[in-house]
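Re: [ENG-882] Designed sequences occasionally contain unexpected residues at chain ends

Forwarding the minimal case from QA. Structure tokens:
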């Protein structure tokens, strides 16, 4: 890229490294958020990058056993391996490479995410990015919902240089609309860039924008590097950001209109006030978010 051109790109607020942690009984996770830039990434609340990790063949699926949620949505983007999902709202299904699962916790439910049985038996590599997306106050107690989005339903368009591809998961980009239904305006793109390709991202100037590097190395605006498992937080001074892939790369674009409302969080609950959190905990403890039959 010619860095002498007059184009003004979005300011780079910060490039954030993720913290490593263990989740459930079988997930190795890197998480660059939540963190100090959470306001600049609303409506997105959390990024958990699971793997890539080797799963040894077994007869016992591991993962995240039943746990509750209320007041937000979980979005699971699969890159390698297969997960099995079920929840107390009656939804269940498997999610494999290229698929996306968009679950609305809303008023509350219990759900479970484990390695799928056949994948567990044969073993393999697992890699998943899971996001938490906030819901506006007026929608936080909406009925739980589940959007199963297979890869075949996600439309793809080429980057301007014809070398890379853009999968539109949610929102609209260059006339292509993603299959996911959302409660607030947002755009989620899964961008695949081979080494040497370039991509100029253009989104509404007032959108919050984060770029999560799933894998690879990119150069931002011609001079700022970002690498695998780093999160780039951008500003609002321009509509555009420019990426050059210095290695084969995958970049998850997380962008949206911020939800400018109070945020109260406690573990798996995301509400607007502490009073609402207390109610969520009480509802969970009395079983109002449901139970699986094999837990009875």
């Amino acid at each position: 890229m010619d860095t002498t051109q007059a184009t003004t790109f979005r300011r780079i607020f910060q490039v954030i490294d993720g913290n490593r942690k263990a989740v459930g009984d079988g997930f190795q996770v890197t998480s660059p958020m939540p963190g100090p830039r959470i306001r600049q990434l609303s409506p997105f609340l959390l990024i958990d990058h699971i793997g890539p990790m080797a799963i040894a063949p077994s007869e016992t699926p591991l993962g995240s056993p039943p746990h509750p949620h209320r007041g937000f949505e979980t979005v699971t983007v699969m890159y390698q391996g297969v997960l099995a999902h079920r929840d107390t709202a009656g939804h269940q299904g498997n999610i494999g490479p290229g698929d996306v699962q968009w679950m609305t916790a809303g008023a509350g439910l219990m759900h479970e995410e484990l390695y799928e049985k056949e994948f567990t038996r044969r073993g393999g590599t697992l890699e998943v990015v899971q996001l938490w997306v906030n819901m506006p106050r007026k929608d936080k107690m909406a009925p739980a919902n589940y959007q199963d989005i297979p890869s075949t339903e996600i439309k793809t368009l080429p980057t301007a240089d014809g070398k890379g591809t853009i999968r539109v998961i949610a929102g609209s980009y260059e006339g292509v609309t993603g299959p996911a239904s959302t409660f607030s305006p947002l755009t989620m793109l899964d961008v695949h860039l081979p080494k040497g390709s370039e991509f100029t991202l253009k989104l509404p100037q007032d959108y919050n924008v984060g770029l999560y590097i799933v894998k690879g190395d990119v150069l931002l605006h011609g001079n700022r590097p970002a690498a695998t498992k780093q999160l780039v937080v951008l500003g609002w001074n321009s509509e555009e950001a420019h990426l050059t892939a210095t290695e084969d790369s995958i970049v998850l674009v997380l962008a949206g209109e911020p939800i400018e409302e109070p945020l109260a969080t406690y573990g798996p609950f995301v509400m607007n006030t502490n009073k609402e959190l207390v109610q969520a905990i009480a509802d969970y403890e009395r079983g109002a978010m449901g139970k699986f039959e094999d837990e009875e």
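QA comment: On inspection the terminal residues look reasonable. Residues 2-6 have pLDDT under 50 and may be disordered. Proposing we downgrade this to a documentation issue.
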